Amino acid sequence: MENHTDIEPSDMKIGVVGAGSWGTALAHLLSTKGFAVDLWVFEAEIAEQIRETRENRVFLPGVRLPGNLVPSNDIEQVVAGKPLVLVVVPSHVLRQTAGRLTEYLDAQSIVVSASKGIENETHLTMSGVLRQVVPSLGSDRIAVLSGPSFAKEVARQVPTAVTAACQERATADFVQRVFASPFFRVYAHEDVIGVELGGAVKNVIAIAAGIVDGLGLGLNTRAALITRGLAEIRRLGAKMGANPRTFSGLAGVGDLILTCTGDLSRNHTVGKKLGQGKKLSQILSEMTMVAEGVRTAKSVYNLSRKLDVEMPISHEIYRILYEEEAPKVALKRLMTRDLKAEMDEDREGIENA
What we know:
The protein is α/β, with parallel strands linked by helices. Helix content is 50%, strand content 11%. It folds into 2 domains: 9-190, Rossmann fold (3-Layer(aba) Sandwich), CATH 3.40.50; 194-351, N-(1-d-carboxylethyl)-l-norvaline Dehydrogenase, domain 2 (Orthogonal Bundle), CATH 1.10.1040. The protein has helices at 21-32, 44-53, 75-79, 94-101, 126-133, 151-155, 169-179, 192-214, 219-239, 250-261, 266-275, 280-285, 292-307, 312-322, 327-335, 344-351; strands spanning 13-17, 36-40, 69-72, 84-87, 110-113, 142-146, 160-165, 184-189. The protein has an 8-stranded mixed sheet, sandwiched between helices. It is globular.
């Protein structure tokens, strides 16, 4: 770690694993800062397209990619010898992808996860999966990047603010400096689990917000949904050892608001179509990119039951997605739950955090 902190962009090569919209946008950001970026592309035809046209027309159309961004199907080429490796793959393939990184990572490489999700089988966050699959990676070398950041807007250099978190503050500070630019402001943080839970569970709440809009309900409904969704995220976070204050920040309420209200949100789009009466299978078959909230809903449902955490909105989304419950039935159940004091139900979890 100490060897990298003073490296200038012209001196450091970065590997980016994953060329979806977010991976491509972050690779674009880093390459425009002057870093030499190798981008691992799963699809051979997309790698060739980027080489020939300097554009990822499938996942990030309309954005010209600099010449110092080199696409490759060879994961060894992308990872080996890189002081920093950014992993941006869908959560359900992170374990498999991380297994491929193991033999190529340098002994001092820092790995930054920009993937958002909770694994279905293990209920691990993405940093947890990395630690399990790559035992040589200590917590001081695993960081996460999260916050309200649509890929298309970052690629257009719209002013954006995010959070970089690592249990080792020096690593978080290093990642902060690597990614920060005049249009991409990065805040350092040490609460890795809080930042990851905020980024993962907000996708489930965003599906709920989309259903609200798909049903044609009002802004009152959406505001209540976002607020109570945040309470659920905070309760789960407190149970898992997160700092409750994290959820008042960019990786918490910031990302939640964006994903629940923005037209570019895949998860909101899935919810909106569900609210309009479409079947989940049809919705997913029409999508090119992954809506992480669909899989995360299953993880959150099972994890919250295991930990005895009250998450009624998340549970209803699980039932809609996996038990074909009608959205209007879910809404009625939520609105007719036993009446409570707003703060009392959260007090225990916060006090124990």
